[in-house]
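Design job #97: recover the sequence.
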């Protein structure tokens, strides 16, 4: 039996075409048009989910959010799809943690190739997984629970912000070019380098006293540096 794929799509024509494409490619395929039913099917352990933004019951964006917040599915590879011509579904999908996005109508050959690429990256990521807990200056990152704390207080980040912070922290002291960050954090998104700057700005706002640990290297990118608690206190203005 091949790798398992769960297709969540209320468009019968699109879903039927995807089912045929993946079965012909040797995958084991399940399909549902309903977001609530998808949550139940996810517990059967598919290797990949293809989630349309247009589904019944639980909407596509909320399903993506639930997948990323639920133990057992938080690291499940996901490809999001949408028939909307607007960019918003594409951007929202990546914000909510999708690994890839494909606009409808979908090329059968392309979606199979993209699925294989996402699955391949997931296998590699499992082999080179960062340690469960990263402690970097004022910041503690629990990669398993997907939780970030600054000086012991939890900071709520989006999936993209979490991936970006983890990527930088795992390479502390090394300059990361914007194009490198785009390739690792948004591997299949056709986005410009300003996307990195926008997310860095939001990330700094949420990190508060630890924001200075993300250093801008002008004209190049960013560097994550370790800051001791006493150094931060020395840099803070005295009353």
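Job complete. Output follows.
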């Amino acid at each position: 039996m091949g790798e398992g794929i769960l297709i969540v799509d209320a468009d019968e024509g699109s879903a039927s075409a995807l089912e045929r494409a993946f079965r012909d490619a040797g995958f084991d395929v399940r399909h549902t048009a309903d977001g609530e039913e998808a949550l139940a099917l996810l517990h059967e352990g598919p290797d990949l989910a293809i989630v349309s933004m247009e589904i019944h019951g639980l909407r596509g964006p909320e399903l993506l959010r639930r997948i990323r917040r639920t133990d057992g599915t938080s690291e499940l590879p996901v490809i999001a799809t949408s028939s909307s011509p607007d960019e918003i579904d594409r951007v929202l999908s990546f914000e909510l943690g999708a690994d890839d996005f494909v606009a409808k109508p979908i090329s059968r050959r392309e979606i199979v190739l993209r699925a294989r690429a996402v699955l391949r990256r997931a296998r590699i990521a499992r082999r080179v997984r960062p340690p469960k807990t990263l402690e970097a200056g004022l910041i503690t990152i629990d990669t398993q629970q997907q939780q970030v704390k600054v000086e012991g207080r939890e900071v709520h980040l989006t999936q993209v912000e979490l991936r970006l912070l983890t990527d930088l922290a795992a390479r502390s002291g090394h300059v990361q070019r914007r194009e490198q960050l785009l390739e690792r954090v948004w591997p299949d998104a056709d986005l410009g380098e300003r996307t990195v700057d926008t997310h860095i700005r939001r990330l700094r706002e949420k990190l508060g006293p630890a924001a200075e640990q993300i250093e801008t290297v002008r004209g190049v990118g960013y560097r994550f540096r370790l800051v001791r608690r006493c150094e931060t206190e020395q840099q803070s203005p005295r009353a």
